[in-house]
Structure formats: structure tokens, C-alpha cells
Amino acid sequence: MNEHPLDWSAIADAHDDLSMDPRLAPGFVGFRQDLARALAGTAAALAERLTTGEAPALPVGPEGVPMDPDLLGDLFDAVRASLARHGAQGAEVERLAEAQETEPDLIQRVVRLAVFDWDGAEIKEIGRRLQVPYVGLLLLGRLLALPFMHAVAGRAEVPEVAPTTEAAICPCCGAPPGLARLAGEGGARVLVCSLCGTNWDYPRIQCPFCGTRDQEKLAVIVVEEEKLHRVEVCEACKRYLKVVDERVLGRECLPFLEETRTLPLDLLAEREGYVRRLY
Length: 279
What we know:
alpha+beta, six-stranded mixed sheet, 10 helices, globular
């Protein structure tokens, strides 16, 4: 069972402190805060409905995710409303909403494809048909999937992950890590799933995306006087991973909050030619 459930309401409240950060656009912080509040409502409703039942088989497949269409529709509407409120370009989202009027299962399909369609062929075709960029469709689908995937992870019996020389994938759902925590006095490297929030240990000196242990290919990007966060990069595969040092933070981090806080590190890594793995 996932030992790191998220309190989405607390995460939403914690975004108040980020609203004063000059490095972050207020509209971006506001959208993420709105999203956390919407996720709190969806997670609470799911908790009431998933009180019984067997633990899902691992790795979790489409049949193991309780994708309630009403809850998903409400969450999608909340995303649309927040984009409009914060002045974001929501034309692509509105095209999805219009298409859903004639395809009632469209949003559910997009979410399932964003999570489980690893080659991306079908979701790319939806994007071409609706003139919605593939990456945008993928990100939207994965954002909408968060409470459902976290609910599954909360019921899963995830085994301990043995040290490996392979690339890292979530032992619960098979997704790549979205963040790393340096935990405990020794700063053990703990990966956090980008989809379901499952945590698992992984070697410090190893790329979680291609598995290389060649120290000449592994590097760290740090910002001057920034001790809490860093970016680990790999020259072999050109991927990057953001890292939160909990020894500096003084507590276990809230991954969704740290994703908001560390947007400048994403921009820095991308300027340096590195790419974030989404699937």
C-alpha cells in the first residue's frame, strides 16, 4: 500500500506562500492551487466509494483504475474554469469540451490513453483531429488522472523494489518518476511516481531514465544559494529529474507543491538542452 497519501487540501493551502515568489507567475500558482482544491474534492469522493474491494493487480492496468465519469467530468470542468479565471490560453481545452458534446466518453478516453497508451498513437490521432498539441493533451490527461491513480496506489500492495541496473519505472503503475526526495540523515534517494505518487528507493549514482552509472555522464545543476532543490541531468539520454533535499527542508516534501515551486528549474534544465520524461 502506498505509504505517502497526499492531503490535497493542505497542498492547496500551502500554495498561498508561493503566491509571493517573484520567480513564479501568479496565474500559474493560482491555477495549481485551484487544481489542488479540485483534486481534494475528487479524492474525498473516491475515498467514500473505494472503502472495500481487493487490492489491484500490479502493475495497474486500465481495468484497475476506477475512472468515475461524473467525478472526471467535474474535475475537467474545474480545470476549464481555472484556466479561464487565470487568463490562460484555453482554446485547446474548449475544443475538447465541444467535442465531448458529441463524444461523451472523450475525456475518459484521453485520460486512459495518457496513462496507458505508451506508444501514443491513438492520443496523437485525437490531438490531430481536434487540433490539440500532443504534449498538451498528454499533460491534461495525466493531471486529470492524478486522484484516480493515487486512489489505486492507496489500495495497492506494492512490493519492495530491489536495487537495479535498469531504468526506473513505478512498481505500482509503470510510470516514470516525476521527482526525487533525498530522505533521512544519509540522504537516501527516493523516487516519486509522476502519476500515482508511489515512492521507491533507487541508487544515488544512476540515471533513473536510461540506467547508466557512468559518472562522466551524470551531473547536477544547482542554483547559487539554493540548497533545497537541484536538478540531476544525464548526458547519455538528455533527461533530467528535479530533486528535493528533505534534510534541508526538515520534513517530508509534498511533491505536487514542490512541482509548482520548482518551475524555474524546469525552465533552466530545458534551456540547457535537457528534456523531462513524460512517459
